[in-house]
Design a protein that fits this description.
Blueprint lengths: L2 H19 L8 H10 L7 H9 L1 H4 L4 H22 L3 H13 L6 H19 L3 H12 L12 H4 L5 H32 L7 H15 L1 H19 L10 H17 L4 H11 L2 H10 L4 H25 L11
Helix pairs in contact: 1-5, 5-6, 5-7, 6-15, 6-16, 7-8, 10-11, 10-12, 10-13, 12-13, 13-14, 15-16
Length: about 325
């Protein structure tokens, strides 16, 4: 990176790192992770996460601020490094990161650690065709968050330049499944809700019931998935501009996440988690999409429209709707 880029990187990183580290109770999962670190309550966490982010750091200090500093450093450092390495419009990618992902990282800590490392190292490993190393890497990341196991199948799809008709077929089929589910999920939720009351069922079943009802009633989840489907259509229409060896991974990653989110939507909490792996590709795809237009005036118009859109999305999701409860204390 040139000197001005390095300075810009350092300034943005420090701001994001400090706010994330010293968030002091902000976010729905803050006290959950504080309890894990303070009381070694790691029975529901993965082995590598427990070792690297709880056991070893506690040798230095038993103050939970060490945990939040370490996780905030890794998440923000590798997300920003990915943006500066791959994005054609770095400021826009940073806006997308802050408005769409940054505040969710306050809660989904383990998964965002895994995602940040996957974006920076995983895509590079795939570009270099080191498939065995990739599988080992994914296995290690899955010991930070189990959802990373889904990315085992990505190498078989990620580098392929499929025909446009194949992309249309896969997306339309997944959207039909999503659309069909939207009519049936009410009954499914009712079944879960009623049967989960039976004493002999496990706590996990109650968790599935709660998750099903929660995501059925959360308007933002529907809106985010609808927006992702609209972007699928937009990207497929402009697909020839993404079809080189460096860009195809990002396009396929986004479509991979969106299609799986469509298929699995509302049947499980995992669908939303899987969707994040594709959604983060927007950091690279949106700038690529804008630059696919030759005329400067169109690029400027699109840039302004995307900034406005992501700003309104942030305001609705996090300020009005209280997603992640990051801004709850300020309301």
């Amino acid at each position: 990176m040139k000197n001005n880029k390095i300075l810009f990187f350092i300034i943005i990183f420090i701001i994001l790192f400090i706010f994330s580290t010293f968030r002091n109770g902000l976010g729905t999962d803050y006290y959950y992770y504080a309890n894990i670190y303070n009381n070694l309550d790691t029975s529901h966490t993965e082995f590598l996460f427990k070792l690297l982010f709880v056991t070893i750091p506690r040798v230095i200090s038993k103050n939970a601020i060490i945990f939040f500093a370490l996780t905030s450093f890794i998440i923000n450092y590798f997300f920003l490094k990915t943006i500066f390495r791959y994005s054609q419009i770095v400021p826009l990618a940073i806006i997308i990161y802050i408005t769409q992902f940054y505040f969710n990282s306050f809660n989904i800590v383990r998964q965002f650690i895994a995602i940040s490392l996957f974006l920076y190292y995983g895509i590079k490993i795939l570009n270099e065709k080191r498939i065995v190393i990739y599988f080992i890497f994914i296995f290690l990341l899955a010991q930070i968050h189990y959802s990373m196991y889904f990315m085992i199948i990505f190498p078989f799809l990620g580098s392929h330049n499929f025909k446009k008709s194949i992309y249309w077929f896969i997306w339309i089929a997944s959207f039909i499944i999503f659309f069909t589910q939207s009519y049936n999920i009410v009954n499914i939720s009712k079944i879960f809700s009623s049967t989960a009351k039976l004493n002999f069922l496990s706590d996990k079943f109650n968790f599935v019931s709660d998750a099903s009802n929660y995501f059925y009633g959360t308007f933002t989840t529907n809106i985010q998935l609808i927006i992702k489907n609209i972007l699928c259509v937009v990207f497929i229409l402009r697909i020839k501009y993404f079809k080189n060896n460096k860009n195809i991974y990002w396009l396929n990653l986004f479509l991979f996440g969106a299609v799986l989110h469509n298929i699995l939507f509302k049947y499980s909490l995992y669908a939303v988690r899987i969707g994040y792996y594709g959604e983060v590709a927007l950091l690279i795809l949106i700038p690529l999409f804008i630059n696919s237009f030759k005329e400067k005036k169109y690029r400027i118009i699109l840039l302004i429209l995307f900034v406005i859109f992501f700003s309104f999305s942030f305001y609705y999701r996090f300020i009005i709707n209280g997603e992640s409860e990051v801004f709850k204390r300020f309301n």
